[in-house]
Amino acid sequence: MYTQIRRNNMLSVLLLLMFPLIILGTIWIFLALVNYLGTYYYDAHGNMVNQLDVEVVNGYFLSTIPWVILGVGVWFLIAYFANTSMIQQATGAHSLSRRENPRVYNIVENLCMTCGMDMPKINVIDDHQLNAFASGISKSSYTVTVTTGLLQFLNDDELAGVLAHELTHIRNRDTRLLITSIIFVGIISAVMSMVVRMMYHAMWFGGGSRRDDEGKGNGVSMIVILLVGFLCSAVAYFFTLLTRFAISRKREFMADAGGAELCGNPRALASALRKISGDPGLGHVDREDIAQLYIIHPQAFSEGVMSFVNSLFSTHPSTQERIRILEQF
C-alpha cells in the first residue's frame, strides 16, 4: 500500500509539472503558425514564400509565459479548493446525515476504526443506478459518495465491501491523482469551448467583407482559428491519453485487495461488483472525467470504434477479472 501511495504522489507531481509544459508548448506552436502564415516574401519568380521568424516567435512566447502560468495556477487553485462542490454539482450529490441513514454511518465508522483512518464525509445521490466513488484531495475534502440504488440493492456485507474499496482509494491517495487529472482536463475543455465560440463568431460574423484584401485577411484569420481549434483538440486528446496512462488500472485491483482485507469478506465485494455491473453509473451524468471515479466504469459511454479506443486506455480493468481475483482469496 505504501508503494502505491508513493507512486500516486509521484504521478500527481508529474502531472502538475507536465501540464504547464504541454500548454506552453502548444502556445509556442500556435505563435509559430501565426508567424509563418503572416510572414512572407516574393521570390525572383514572383511567388509568395512563407517564412518563420523564430526570434519574433520567441519574443512573443516569452511575454506570454507569466500570463499562462498565472492563469493555470489561479484556475488550479480555485478547482483544488472547490473540487468537492464541483463534483457535488455535477452529480447532484448531497450530504447524508447519521439520522437519515445510520446503517451507512455505522459501517463506515467501523471500517475507519479498523484501519485507523479519519472518517470521511458521506454523500448520497438520488439515483436508482448502482454507483459509489471516493473523491477529495485532503482530509477536509475526502468524501465517499453512494447512490440510493446501491443502498437499496446491496446487503450489509456487500455494502461494507464497496465502502471498504472506496476508503482504500482514499488511503492510497488515488483520489488525489484522479482529481488532479480531472482539474487539468477541465482547463483543456474550457479552452476548447472558447475556441468553438471563436469559430462560430468568425463563421457567422467575420465573412461579410467584399474587398479582396479584406477577404484574404479574413481567410487567413479563419485558417488561424481553425488551426487553434485543431491544436487545442490535439492537446486535449493527448492529455486525456496521458492521464489515462498515468492512472494505472492496478489502482482498482489494489483497492479491491485493500477493500477485501479491510472488510474481511472478499466474496461479498465480488458479489457487490457483480450486482453493480448490471446497472452502473449515473443516469443524468455522462462525463468521462467524473466516470473515472466510479467503482465500475459505465461502458455505455463508448460505442463503435471509440469503444475499442477507450478500452485500450481505460482507467478501469475488466469487472469479470476483478471478480475472478476476489473469489480466489
Describe the structure.
This protein has 329 residues and is α+β, with helices and mostly antiparallel strands. It contains 12 helices and 6 strands. The chain has helices at residues 2-38, 54-91, 102-115, 148-153, 156-171, 174-205, 212-246, 250-263, 266-276, 288-291, 305-312, 319-326, and strands at residues 40-42, 48-50, 94-95, 121-125, 132-135, 143-147. The strands form 2 sheets. The protein has a 4-stranded mixed β-sheet, sandwiched between helices. Strand 1 (40-42) and strand 2 (48-50) form a beta hairpin. The two termini are 18 Å apart. Residues 207-212 and 300-308 have low confidence and may be disordered.
What is the strand tally?
Answer: 6
Overall geometric form: elongated
Fraction in helix: 55-70%
Secondary-structure-derived class: alpha+beta
Strand order of the largest sheet: 3-4-6-5
From the N-terminal CA to the C-terminal CA, the straight-line distance is 18 Å
Radius of gyration equals 24 Å
What profile does the largest beta sheet have? 4 strands, mixed
Count, helices: 12
| Average predicted confidence as pLDDT | 79
Strand content: 5-15%
Order of helices and strands: HEEHEHEEEHHHHHHHHH
Enumerate the spans where pLDDT stays under 50 for 5 or more consecutive residues.
207-212, 300-308
